[in-house]
Amino acid sequence: QVHLVESGGGLVQPGDSLSLSCQASGDLIGIRGMGWFRQNSQVEREWIASIGRWPEPEYAGSVKGRFTMSRDEGANTAALTMTSLNVEDTAVYYCYVDVMGTDAVIRRYWGQGAQVTVSS
After folding, report:
1. Of 21, 46, 44, which Cα lies nearest the Cα of 34?
2. In whole angstroms, what is the distance from residue 7 CA to residue 96 CA?
3. Among 72, 43, 67, which Cα is nearest to 55's?
4. CA nearest 50: which of 24, 76, 68, 23?
């Protein structure tokens, strides 16, 4: 089993910065990557960033240049640093990890979500 715990989030003003953290635990031998999605009432779950086979993170166009994802492979953690936040960034942010099992099937596991609210 794989378990993810997110921390961070909260209420900030437009232009502020905020960081989220994600700690994965369990059977992570076959880990293939980690990343973040977000979801709000107006948009379906939207992919934000990920680090997979390649060490360089990839970003959605909506956050590129403002958000930075990092990953500590040894600690099985991921972080998302968000800058220049605007009201459109308000959402629940979900961390995920992709793990290949002994059956060669890659499964995605999700964190519990962290609320980020940007409001003046």
Report:
1. 21
2. 13
3. 72
4. 68
Q: Mean pLDDT across the chain, nearest whole number?
A: 94
Residue 38 has pLDDT above 90, yes or no: yes
Query: For residue 74, which amino acid is it?
Result: G
3-state secondary structure 31-65: EEEEEEEEECCCCCCEEEEEECCCCCCEECCCCEC
Q: How confident is the model at residue 55 (pLDDT cuts 50, 70, 90)?
A: confident
3-state secondary structure of 87: helix
Q: Tokens 């059977």 correspond to what residue?
A: 27
Please report, as a single letter, which amino acid is at residue 38: R
Q: Which pair of tokens denotes residue 85?
A: 């936040």
In the chain, the amino acid numbered 25 is: S
